Amino acid sequence: MNLDIKKIQDNLCQLLCAEIHLKERNKNLIVVETPFFFPDGDPYQIYLKEMPNGIIRLSDMGHTFMHLSYENEVDKFREGTRGKIFNQIISESSINEDNGEFYVETGIDNLVLNLFHLGQALTKINDLTFLNRARAESTFYEDLQESLYKIIPEQKIKKDYIYESMEYSSDYPIDFFIQGKYNPLYVFGVPNKDKARLTTIVLERLLRAEAIFDSLLIFADQTIIPRHDLARLSNTGGEMIASLDAVDDFSRKLLRKVDLN
Fold first, then answer.
1. How many CB atoms lie within 10 A of CB 251?
2. 46 - beta bridge partners?
3. Span 141-155, pLDDT tens digits
4. What is the pLDDT of residues 113-144, one digit of tens each?
5. Residues 9 and 104 placed together within one structural domain of the fold
6. What is the DSSP string of 86-146?
7. Kindly report the CA angle at 8 between 4 and 14, in degrees rounded to 5?
8. What CATH number corresponds to the domain at position 216?
9. I want to staple 101 with a disulfide (CB 3.0 to 4.6 A). Which of 29, 62, 176, 229 is the partner?
């Protein structure tokens, strides 16, 4: 290898150091300007504070969660699949979290290393905003359930409902049962083609069992379902909602069929 590793290292150190600036905020707090930015262009807010016994605390002072709260329900980051990933980020990054403040405590010798650890952790936490219905099917049912609860009282909804009058009924659970105005309403979430096929099977078995019901099919993204699978599903199912993002359509079709009394 002909590369001058020391020269490369020196150049990298100079470039990285040039991107980090310290500004005194007050007598107890120093602002650390870094090359870390949110997708909207706002910089990360990182502060340096002297603690007892020569310890330095690097902290975002709760700014990251505040920034994300403008367009997200940050409480979701602590629930379900997102919550598991959130806790994993905290654990793997060796940072601390206290009521929405992310921080790491370090000695002066490891200050730069821990600054990058904190920056990396904040980036991963921000990336939880991309853990949406299109990219993570595991959160789709959580989002669907939450959407239902916003419209229908929770006590009126039964999850993983079993239609007992059907043969091998326990093998074909219905995602959600809601008492309808005229007939029971069976709600199915459809995040992918496999669930589209399974929902078709469940609906066909219900029809063969002469079950009386209405159905509502909610897709994570209807456009990703293969045409033939969608056609078979439409032949057996009732009304469809192309995406959970179609909030008005979802609410209108649901309330038209549900008895809220």
1. 15
2. 32
3. 888 998 999 999 999
4. 888 889 899 998 888 876 644 445 667 888 89
5. yes
6. HHHHHHHHT-EEETTEEEEEE-GGGHHHHHHHHHHHHHHHHHGGG--TTT-GGGHHHHHHH
7. 150
8. 3.40.1350
9. 62
CA separation, residue 138 to residues 141, 150, 191 (Å): 7, 20, 9
| Amino acid type, 7 | K
Q: What is the CATH number of the domain that holds 111?
A: 3.30.1460
User: Is the full-model pTM beyond 0.85?
Assistant: no
| Number of domains composing the chain | 2
d(C-alpha 188, C-alpha 202), whole Å:
10
Per-residue model confidence as pLDDT tens digits over 189-224: 999 888 999 999 999 999 999 999 999 999 988 888
* The one-letter amino acid at 158: K
Which tens digits make up the pLDDT trace of 72-110?
Answer: 778 878 877 778 888 889 888 889 999 899 999 988 888
Give the pair of three-digit tokens for residue 160: 């993983």
Domain that holds residue 163: 137-257
The overall average pLDDT reported for the chain is 85
